[in-house]
Amino acid sequence: MTQPVLQRQLFGPGPSNPYPEATAALGLPLLGHLDPAFIARMDRVCDSLRTLWGTSNARTLPLSATGSAGMEAAFVNTINPGDVAVIAVNGLFGERMCEVASRVGAEVVRVDHEYGTPIDAQRVAEAHPNPTVIAGVHAETSTGVLSDIAALGAIKGDALLITDAVTSIGGMPVLADEWGIDVGYAGTQKCIGVAPGLAPFTISDRAFERRVQKPQSWYLDLGLLGGYTTGSTGGGRTYHHTAPVAMVASLEAGLERILSEGLDTVTTRHQAAGTALQNGLQEMGLELFAAEGHRLPQLTTVKVPQSVDSAKVRGYLLERFNIEIGGGVGQYANTVWRIGLMGPNANPSSVALLLAALKEAIDKA
Amino acid sequence: MTQPVLQRQLFGPGPSNPYPEATAALGLPLLGHLDPAFIARMDRVCDSLRTLWGTSNARTLPLSATGSAGMEAAFVNTINPGDVAVIAVNGLFGERMCEVASRVGAEVVRVDHEYGTPIDAQRVAEAHPNPTVIAGVHAETSTGVLSDIAALGAIKGDALLITDAVTSIGGMPVLADEWGIDVGYAGTQKCIGVAPGLAPFTISDRAFERRVQKPQSWYLDLGLLGGYTTGSTGGGRTYHHTAPVAMVASLEAGLERILSEGLDTVTTRHQAAGTALQNGLQEMGLELFAAEGHRLPQLTTVKVPQSVDSAKVRGYLLERFNIEIGGGVGQYANTVWRIGLMGPNANPSSVALLLAALKEAIDKA
């Protein structure tokens, strides 16, 4: 018996619903991963990613795995055992950076911040006199907080700056060159509006020259990957692994959609939807979790009222409205909701639906 | 101006054209990666993969990256620095195993074989008295050679047996439990007939108990991944990373297609197509590369006649017929062709088309 196809409204922390163009591209006939037509497609994708990252870095490419592998690639290619990594922690993904960096053999210097607050660049600067890398999350998916990456760039000194832009890219400006980001990674499934499966990645020439010569990961070795995605110095592409060709086609379509709409317009759209949602939630009497002035429009964190069962509300939204929102993480698992309006979902209809559905769910669940 | 959509016949070493069911599933509405409906889907996928792997291993799952990451996962989870890995090398993917294992800190003991010949289990047994792991490729994609993995299982002693089944699984029997495979990895884009992007993976309880407690890769740490795909011991799934949900939906559809056709029928179909192709090529006066009696039906290697320009023929096939075939690898780059008939392409029409097109290309290119 055929199961009915569920059509979810993905208003959680990700994946988001993809742009229709991105979904349509998944169904196109496959190209081989060394087909000249695919290589041309990969070139276009890398070009579009440069625009999204605000960079001219030659080595800007989609890694063949999800955003978390992008994080791993950032550290395995920059950290030799014993190198110092100063990591700003203001949420789950900062925590994860510490774990990943330590597995690469880094001496990790954590700079802890209260969850819900942004990174304090001055404290990061004072944490160590001469780190090899400094790392921080631009848009913390776990807390809904935006941090000032340019401020980190200004204090990085000789260190390389690693930035997690998983939840920011495609929904707000990310200016790698201007801000001084040396290594940036992201995911496709948030504001880019493509299914999860790829990690858009960029690395500056400065970082690439200093890179680990033989990273512990063969799969994520940028020295080897560069020969495939950007061509070797002698011209021609060398085989490394089989690229996820369907996902790359989908990413191309998603990026074309965003760039034809215009990055400014996309930013404005995300900002407007997020502001409307946050205003509406507060008008309903709910309290926001992230510090005022540092709230992500694309990912809103809300405190669950004390009398309300978080899981029941989420279950009600899923069952009755086919709406997914997220719980909190760690100690906030049951006391915070995370609501994403990313990619095509950043629009007034989503806001109206969410506010109405959440109100009913809180009343009835 | 809209570009025409290319519709390639992917008769190279992979990716293959996907089963239509697998392509259709890519376009379904996305589910969240923690949605109960997605978790049920993941359970079904893991069940189907157990059937394909011929195993009852609890930890049988699709890794969120391509087949080469499956290879990396196999070694990072089993090798502690200084452990001995005896690796049978009879092609590019055996070579790659040596490289990946050495980056994990293994003392690699290579057992080299002439390219085009199968693994000699006796020589592998004699290479070291007490290795931690023994590794070999079941179906060498670079040479078109099938090796007897059961023979490796019979001589493994206390060692763990790692097997690359990238090109075999879904096209011929792979019997992990019966043959003594402890860790197996594959890809989706060959005989499984799904786009590249996932690595079907299995690990025995015996190997899991001996696993590296904190692998150098956080992304491929099976201890952490197990909590997400198979549930933690306390029940419930723990978040690790965002699964590539569209690819998993596609994999489910591809596996359902294969299992409803029946594994025996699928095997017979691949065998028949490969035999017909190999007979036809020899009737055309071409010489096969892989040793007789050890030829893969799903991937045929052919010697390029001395008077023929390999690249010109491949270019002609692509331009005139939209057919992709592969060149050789390494020293055989220009002297061998690799022709795959995998997944839906293992059928009489593909054979007839290939033989006619290749004949014309050799005559005219």
Would you kindly provide a written description of the structure presented here, covering whatever features stand out?
The structure is a homodimer of 365-residue chains. The first copy, chain A, has 365 residues and is of the alpha/beta class. Chain A is built from 13 helices and 14 strands. In chain A, a hairpin with a 4-residue loop joins strand 6 (139-140) and strand 7 (145-146). Chain A is globular. At the A-B interface, helix 1, helix 3, helix 4 and helix 10 of A face helix 1, helix 3, helix 4 and helix 10 of B.
Highlighted features:
homodimer; 365 residues; alpha/beta; Aspartate Aminotransferase, domain 1; Aspartate Aminotransferase, domain 2; 2 domains; seven-stranded mixed β-sheet; three-stranded antiparallel β-sheet; globular
Range of helix content of chain A? 25-40%
CATH topology of the largest domain in chain A: Aspartate Aminotransferase, domain 2
Number of helices of chain A: 13
Number of domains in the coordinates of chain A?
Answer: 2
Largest interface: which pair? A-B, 59 and 60 residues
CATH H level of the largest domain in chain A: which superfamily?
Type I PLP-dependent aspartate aminotransferase-like (Major domain)
Helix/strand class of chain A: alpha/beta
- Order of strands in the sheet with the most strands of chain A? 2-10-9-8-5-3-4
What distance separates the N and C termini of chain A?
Answer: 31 Å
From the spread of the alpha carbons, the general shape of chain A counts as: globular
What order do the SSEs of chain A take from the amino end to the carboxyl end, as H and E? EHHEHEHEHEEEHEHEEHHHHEHEEEH
Low-confidence stretches of chain A: none
Total beta strand runs of chain A: 14
The overall average pLDDT of chain A, rounded, is: 96
Q: In oligomeric terms, what are we looking at?
A: homodimer
Report the major sheet of chain A.
7 strands, mixed
Q: Give the CATH architecture of the largest domain in chain A.
A: 3-Layer(aba) Sandwich
Q: What amount of the residues of chain A lies in strands? A: 15-25%
The first-level CATH class name of the largest domain in chain A = Alpha Beta
Q: How many whole angstroms does the radius of gyration of chain A measure?
A: 20 Å
Cofactor (chains A, B): pyridoxal 5'-phosphate
Organism (chains A, B): Glutamicibacter soli
Family (chains A, B): Belongs to the class-V pyridoxal-phosphate-dependent aminotransferase family.
GO molecular function (chains A, B): alanine-glyoxylate transaminase activity; L-serine-pyruvate transaminase activity
